[in-house]
């Protein structure tokens, strides 16, 4: 038997700061905005951070979040996004979001977190939006949002089950961040800073030290150290290296959009067709499926056709800079540049080269309405090319890291789908926790 409670009655405190922007500083306390809160993540992520001074932190805000408060965005495109405040709170919150503190005497806090993320409560939040232009869920409407409330032991069981799935997803996500950072560090040391050559030139002879300690396996370090020159050429690169245009090292293609008014191009489509929106929703490195699929006939209207698995996708406008690796063959619209891998420009090399050169890519964009990097401007961009052998060795070194990232992403996708499927059924009593655990 459910005993619904309004969100207003389920809370004992709300951290609701002024509806205007806090004065920011060059550094200090992190100030997170709505872009940092997502239903995908257990805790807020730190993207495009701003900062506030100690004085602003102490005097400007009405209150600050506490551990295990629930963050709710209540305005804008992220309206209704929910995540938890972590045990260590190292941030303050900007406008258009609140921190909700559950009344433990009335509802289990972790259950409230789960319920607010459930599909039925999320839909109810959207239905309470008061502005058709900018979605807005007002605090004054908290008494109109009702949370299904089973008996307390059931609440606690559902809350814990949901939290454990979210925590596993969070653990995988953090592991992937570490793995990607490790791979990026290797790329930067080898191909940007020329660390191994600099260490050799300085007289270093220990292979592990030549590789900057990034490859602690002595056998592998010995194998790789000999591939790096011990000095620099007149071009400023390690001896024997050269600058090559990216368009000479791999196939660079764009995309197109079949007529959206022609159903034979879309209805029953089986081929992935990506837009930058697909990458904006991506929570990892690999693109597995897209929002829309095209038919065989529709695919003929995309001049570049299907790009193979391992192609690196770069959004070339609106905005420039989303990067992903195709995990399945994919066609793309005109908002992309696609790098199809070769021996001289492997998937792994292409991905990290693109990530490390985003500033250069954006600097070569133009356009009056919006900035865009064209294939014509992209193909001449320069790559520090060490030869195919070292490129292949880089892929061999970071390939296992990328495989782990891929596996973790696949597991997270399954865990999230399982969580989102079972949560409404648990809340309604349609299935028991034992059945949900078995399914998970």
User: What distance lies between the first and last C-alpha atoms, to the nearest angstrom?
Assistant: 25 Å
In what order do the strands lie side by side in the largest sheet? Answer: 11-18-15-16-13
Specify Rg, calculated over alpha carbons.
25 Å
CATH topology grouping of the largest domain = Adenine-n6-DNA-methyltransferase TaqI, Chain A, domain 2
CATH class of the largest domain: Alpha Beta
Largest sheet: 5 strands, mixed
**Discrete helix count:** 16
Query: Segments where pLDDT lies below 50 for 5+ residues?
Result: none
What class do helices, strands and sheet pairing give? alpha+beta
Give the overall average pLDDT.
92
Number of strands: 19
Helix content: 25-40%
Total tally of structural domains:
3
Write the layout of secondary structure elements.
Layout: E1 5-6, H1 7-10, E2 11-15, E3 29-32, E4 50-52, H2 54-59, E5 70-73, E6 82-84, E7 91-93, E8 97-102, H3 109-117, H4 119-127, E9 146-147, H5 152-192, H6 195-201, H7 207-210, H8 218-225, E10 242-245, H9 246-249, E11 251-253, E12 271-274, H10 276-280, E13 286-287, E14 292-294, H11 296-299, E15 312-316, E16 320-326, E17 330-332, E18 336-340, H12 347-356, H13 358-363, H14 375-378, E19 382-385, H15 388-428, H16 433-439
Parallel strand pairs: 3-7, 12-17, 13-16
Antiparallel strand pairs: 1-9, 2-8, 3-4, 5-6, 5-8, 10-19, 11-18, 12-14, 15-16, 15-18
